[in-house]
Design a protein that fits this description.
By secondary structure, the protein is an alpha+beta fold. The protein folds into three domains: 151 residues, no CATH class; 67 residues; 133 residues, Heat Shock Protein 90 (2-Layer Sandwich), CATH 3.30.565.10. The protein is 65% helix and 9% strand. It is built from 13 helices and five strands. The two termini are 74 Å apart. 28% of the residues are buried.
Amino acid sequence: MTPPLPPAAAALAPPSPGAPGVRTLTPVSRVLRLCLHALLFGLLALAAGRAVADSAPQAGWVVGACAVLAAVYLAGVRTPAVHRSARAGAVWLAGLCTAWAALLVVSPDGLWIAFPLYFLELHLLRLRWGVAAVAGTAAAAIGGFVGHHSLAHSSAVTPGAFLGPLLGGAVAVATVLGYQALYRESERRRELIEELITTRAELAAAERSAGILAERERLAREIHDTLAQGLSSIQLLLRAAERSLPEGSAALPHIGRAREAAQENLAEARRFVRALTPPDLEHGSLPAALERLCTGAPGPRVRFSLSGTPRPLPTPYEVALLRIAQSALANVVRHAEAGRAEITLTFMDSSVTLDIVDDGKGFDPTSAPSGDGGFGLPAMRSRAETLSGLFTVESAPGQGTAVAVTLPLPAEALS
């Protein structure tokens, strides 16, 4: 497949719909295109007009050569293949140069057509070949002018005959190189802006997701710690009242119905808590969720181990341990530069412990930042202390890191 033309080549003509490698013209590109067209046709009109006005012997040839050059130029401008194929562009450019050489033979004013040709050569050819073509065009222009000057038996050729085409070629090369540098910088900035927009959208989505999960966890914790515990206490009190009343008391049926209502509402509250459980815990136990977390972790090799006899934990406990594991593992992946890490969940008689250990570069816990997007040590410590747990961090520069959290098991988990 032929590589697309340089961006500046698109300024030569309107792009064909769906043409590969051609961008839609910007206002600046349209202005450049119109200026190039106007410059070329203006110089051709000037050369033909001067030949007719001066009644030059070869006026007819000059007008004909200008017409042929204009026709070749228009044919290339209106041909889509010139803008899609570097080979077609080079063929068109060769035809233009041939027509220009014919004009240069019959008229010294053909010298000025070299300037728009410089830009076409630099646009349609690779830089190395474009510069060589510009040098050849400048030499041809100088040679043509000197030849006409000699045939006219005029005075000595002035330095301006040499400096004009050379300076024009140098200006054209500098202009095109500057344009291409600005275009590349514009493309880099466009890509950066697109990347920033995409990143911001992803960050906003992540923040919304994190906010939803945090709110679900808060509601689950509030329902469990307040409503569910209150209904459980009401049921116990009603049971005690039922036992203390004599057999046949008129209050017993009412107490029984109250107990049933409390039991139904307690079951409903627990269903709410289960419905608000994080997705990682919806389809399995805490050990299974931690094992999936280790399996899917990027970066270092992470191993999960389980110690003791697993037992069901209240939802707030499972959520806190899972979130602490996720936060600690996120820190390992992002900051520790570790090769290995291990997460251990240990069930003991009256407590449960979670350990996250890595062999990374370590850090000084006393100088650790206060937070890191919700994954900081204070956030993990707060989760543990909310459930009356103990949170510890052991680390030193170059010696890895060990994070441990111990939660006392509630009475309902011990029974």
